[in-house]
Design a protein that fits this description.
- By secondary structure, this protein is α/β, with parallel strands linked by helices.
- It has eleven helices and eight strands.
- The chain has one domain: Rossmann fold.
- The strands form two sheets. A six-stranded parallel sheet has the order 2-1-3-4-8-7, with helices on both faces. Strands 5-6 form a two-stranded antiparallel sheet.
- Helix 1 crosses helix 2 and helix 1 crosses helix 10.
- The chain is globular and about 50 Å long.
């Protein structure tokens, strides 16, 4: 990455970090209903992959997908309003944390069901191939999703039809609270792509530059008609599975060892060496988050008269 691109990557990562740290506070203050799942520590995946995508490309993500949507440039204030259930939210307060959707920026939807975004992405990729449209679909999912039937069905169809889809597995070592090594027979999730003859690569996802470079090459190859590619992002979440998680399944020493090589810290240090004013960037991001919270809190609640807008049924 050159200086400008690394600056953009850092800005995205820091925005995600501060957005989610703020969500944690708002959740504790009872401004957010339901459960939330934070991606603190995993921001380099969102930033690197997001920057590698073209404007016309599509994406599906998970219930831990706030960062992925931010990386697609959805305004933070609209996402914050959505988190607080307000009418000005990106989905008018109806979707909340686990269902962010912004079709205008290619975000086909987050999904609370593990692995559910993969078949959606394959469907979108099939549409692109059938209609001869120039977009790649990226689907981001966790390591635990590789045990779901939908995962295998999606990879099989993508391989058979040579579809323009990029599979991005965020392997943060835990399927919720279970160490992934205890529930899969392979050492690397990338090995599972081999069964479908899909090229697979492992990536150090605590290095945003590596994430970007590998994702960029993969998307270029897919766009050129070479078929699906699988990327296993070796990452780690520095917080619990969800708010309230006691994290009894891992040691503080393990978390600290990953925190020591935080991708944000590494990027900030490099930017400082390149004479970029990181403190100024941070201040701008902080102001954006504060403005987003103010916008969300001052926004109206959805009108009950419109409760059923957007719903449909078949008789």
């Amino acid at each position: 990455m050159d200086k400008d691109l690394l600056t953009e990557a850092y800005t995205i990562m820091k925005t995600i970090r501060r957005f989610e740290e703020t969500l944690s506070v708002l959740f504790a203050e009872n401004f957010i209903r339901g459960s939330i799942h934070l991606s603190i520590g995993q921001e380099a995946v969102a930033a690197g992959v997001g920057l590698a995508m073209a404007p016309q490309d599509k994406m599906t993500t998970t219930y831990r997908g706030h960062g992925h949507v931010i990386a697609r440039k959805t305004p933070v204030k609209l996402l914050m309003a959505e988190m607080l259930g307000r009418e000005t939210g990106i989905n008018k307060g109806r979707g909340g944390s686990m269902h962010f959707t912004d079709v205008s920026r290619g975000v086909l939807g987050a999904n609370a069901i593990v692995a559910a975004g993969l078949p959606h992405a394959v469907g979108a990729a099939y549409s692109a191939k059938y209609l001869k449209e120039d977009y790649v679909t990226v689907t981001i999912f966790g390591d635990g999703a590789t045990n779901q039937g939908a995962f295998h069905e999606a990879l099989n169809l993508a391989a058979v039809y040579k579809l323009p889809v990029l599979f991005v597995c965020e392997n943060n070592l835990y399927s919720e609270m279970t160490p992934i090594e205890e529930i899969v027979p392979v050492e690397h999730m990338a090995e599972r792509a081999e069964a479908y003859k899909i090229p697979a690569h492992m990536v150090d996802a605590y290095n945003v530059e590596e994430v970007y470079e590998v994702a960029k090459r993969a998307i270029e190859d897919i766009r050129a008609g070479k078929g699906p590619i699988f990327l296993e992002m070796k990452t780690y979440r520095l917080v619990g599975h969800m708010c309230g998680d006691q994290e009894v399944y891992r040691s503080r020493e393990e978390v600290a060892s990953w925190a020591a090589r935080d991708a944000l810290k590494t990027a900030a240090e490099k930017l400082s060496q390149l004479q970029v004013d990181v403190k100024k960037l941070d201040a701008s991001i902080e102001q954006e988050i504060e403005d987003a919270v103010k916008f969300a809190k001052e926004s109206p609640w959805p009108d009950p008269k419109h409760l059923f807008d957007g719903l449909y049924y078949a008789e």
